[in-house]
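QUALITY CONTROL LOG
STEP: pairwise intake check
CHECKER ROLE: data steward
CRITERIA: each record must contain a sequence immediately followed by its structure tokens, with no blank fields

ENTRY 1 OF 2
RESULT FIELD BELOW
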Amino acid sequence: MSFVTLADEDALSDVATFVSRARVLVPDGYVRLQTVGSVLMSSVLVRSGSGLLGAGTVVGMRGTALGQGAGALDVTVDLSAVADRLARMRGAGWLRLDVPPVLRQAPWAAVSPPRGGWSVIGEFAGEDVAFVAESGLARVQRERDAGADTAALTALDKQVWDESVGEGMGQFRAALALGVHALGFGGQGPVRLLRHGSWTRLSTAAGDVIGR
């Protein structure tokens, strides 16, 4: 399938906003577009992992309603290419999103998180999750402003976002809070913490950030 049709203008605006925020987080990144029934799941990389299993990978996901007759689609493409198409669609009032012709291969996009079987561990205020992300960003920015070299900034960046937040079973990596904040998933509502085996997930009404 080479295109999908979004449900309405609100759905179009929703995808455009998600892609725009993702490009701020990872300017040269990719987006995985996957149809799941009547929903378009858009997934982007928040933090890269390591090793064959991609340990430490964090991905942000948002679902958007599709129009009738949605077919099967599962591709990974450039965020910039999708952004260009969405801009043209909004200008012309179109709801059909044509898939960019250049497909990408990304290790993080090759592994799908479980769809079911998640256990709810706890719940956090959106403001608290935002504070974790904003504090981490501020720590890195202070070192950048102080003239730290690339190696030092890379080491600090990893340290900041690999840190655990919370206590006991309610712990999660700060990188998940970064995803919730940067992708605009926090808002004013609660943020649920869920687990499934080695997977950890922060879930809100706006979207999900999942790590392993």
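ENTRY 2 OF 2
RESULT FIELD BELOW
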Amino acid sequence: MNPTTPPEAAAKPAGPTGRKVVVTGGTRGIGRETVDRFVAMGDTVVSLSTSGAPVDNALSLACDVADPQAVEQAMKQAVEALGGLDVLVVNAGIVRDNLMARMSAEDFSAVIQTNLMGGFYSVKAGIRPLIRSSRGRVIFCSSTAALLGGIGQGNYAASKSGLIGLARTLARELARGSTTVNVILPGLIDTDMGRDFPEKVRQEFIDSVPLRRAGTVTEVASLITYLASDEARYITGAVIPVDGGVSMGV
């Protein structure tokens, strides 16, 4: 776990309303767009990612969220650099798709360890500074697969379902301190991960979406930043889809 951007190069808050934000999986796709939006709003942001790749105007730290010691060290460094923690976005995740009959225990465990346990490790490491904040926010990035399942995605769906139970438990535990905890459920989003599906499978999925298109990272990140805002302070324990209507009624 090494910083790839010195703390002094991280974004500086634009006045007294600037929040202290950590985003896991902050170098690509939804995570990167989320980092950029918080920075643009005048917040100080730390991006945690396996690569630790530089992110403009944010402090970038290398951290494998599947490793509890690495997460603890990275979160400690992030909180020290930020001077506290107001917002934690749990976004890091992986896929290792295969039909259940062919899926190895190693692939199942790896996805659970990163997506679910990584979320647990991240929250556990950040929970005390979040409680001390007067505007603590936790946003988990789950998936519509948590509700609908997905062929070849038993491990992924299980990991993302687990985040919902974790988040709602945490929402109850932290409510007295005014920290809110919410979950978003992206559907098919135009990211590297979303584009990795075979074209036929991708098109079939789009055809099943009432709005007949994939979502954008901007649409997802906009919801994340809203849930982190003062305007959303009465929303907690919510599970909100961003999926073009594919999971409506579930």
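INTAKE CHECK: passed for both entries
DESCRIPTIVE NOTE, ENTRY 2: The first strand starts at residue 20 and ends at 24.
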